[in-house]
Amino acid sequence: MCPHCKKIYAPKSLLKKHMQFGCKMNPRNTTTFSCTFCPYKSIYKANMERHVSNVHNTGSLKFRCELCNFRSNYSFCVRRHIKTFHRLDDFQK
């Protein structure tokens, strides 16, 4: 049984994984990894690394915001960025 949230797991390997990564009541699991390019956050380092690689790949970024230096490999990310950061709902490129 998880000492933080009282959920029961069998086998013990699932309990161990839950306590290390999944239990929201475990104070050690409150650490988040924040993206330096956007508001994205994750409790998993691997998810953050994948996000940065997929969304903010610094190699050859195909799409860019015309209002600032934000760039992405995906047009939907630039549109979302414009809507979120520049508060322009109907901006179309």
From TrEMBL:
- Transmembrane regions: none
Provide the C2H2-type domain boundaries: 33-56, 63-86
One Pfam family name is zf-C2H2
**Gene3D superfamilies registered for this protein in UniProt:** Classic Zinc Finger
What is the name of this protein?
ZEB1 protein
- UniProt source species: Acromyrmex insinuator
The beginning of the lineage is: Eukaryota, Metazoa, Ecdysozoa, Arthropoda, Hexapoda
Q: Which gene encodes it?
A: Zeb1
